[in-house]
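Usage

Read records sequentially. Each one opens with the input sequence:
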Amino acid sequence: MMGNNELGFTTSEFEARTARIQKVMHEKRLDAVFLTTEPNIRYFTGFYTQFWESPTRPWFLVIPLEGKPIAVIPGIGASGMQATWIEDIHTWSSPNPEDDGITLVSGVINSLPSCFGRIGATLGLQSYLRMPTTDYLKLADMLKGKEFIDIAKDIHQLRSIKSTAEVEKIRRACAITNHGFDMIPAHAKAGQTEREICTQMRINMLSKGAEFVKYLISGSGPDGYDSIIMGPTSRIIEKGDVLIIDVGAVYDGYFSDFDRNFAFGHCSDETKRAYDCVYEATDAGFKVARPGATTTDLYKAMWKVMEAGGALGNEVGRLGHGLGIQLTEWPSNTATDNTVLEPGMVITLEPGMTYAPGKDMVHEENIVITEDGAEWLTRRASEHITIID
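and closes with the structure output:
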């Protein structure tokens, strides 16, 4: 917790988040919520550490129907959790394969008032439990007269509505990423590898204030590319190549996520038209992005433009998604998602299409839904594809 400083959040932010989930708990008749993953535990506590990269130890958070969350964590994290707003902290010496916190956390849950006999956990949609399956089954057996209920979508919905403070962190991450893209024409040139170009971009973003650059993907090829998830590679960029770079930079725990396309020396009119098409599709998505519209409305508006522009298909499967603590969050802009947009949702608009065999064109921007429409969080890409001489 960092008071009114730029980093971190005030205690009131976490109080509001807890109040929102407890309202859901009352509606769904839950005695507690049981959380195990880094994004969810951080969201409700402010416990922010790179130590999650170590998969050795499980971490638990229990949110009761009334009162503050309760942390049940390995002893190595005690001082860090004590620095948050959480007061009730239970620890054990971990790793302990014989009983890695299961007896401790079951005791905490069993000690809570049992009004409904139901415990919420993220068991379904776009979720997972960060603990051994055998331990989860053991814990379920140790809870007296209680059953686990899936609340994955409820957590997704709650986290999808960003506070002003959250939006500002994403806006800052986007500004840092925009700076990295702005610098590319000055340092990238034919003869370099994808990896060399992306390494310099990473350095530029870190020097501008990025905390991490956890996602930096590139793809390239003669007059186009056919993959947006595999690079950067040691492939040498040549005249006539098209390069896409897709970046998720982190500022104070919040991601940006958008891409830019570059042509080296020249590209075909076909590729230029494809770029113009996805640019126009992004604008179409932005125009319909407002409270009451749905993610499917966004999809249809963008796909209509690309279909008219000769799209052969879309291998990505969606045309954007939620954004925040994680690079990609719920919901997805698809033909069937139909999530209603609300003020505070941060969404990526990501129209992509196959415009010729073996050639894709993808464009992405980040927006926030406001009370009367939407606002760009990214500075718009150039209207036509950038040519690097």
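Summary fields computed downstream for this record:
- Residues 164-187 form the longest helix (24 residues).
- Residues 1-5 have pLDDT under 50 and may be disordered.
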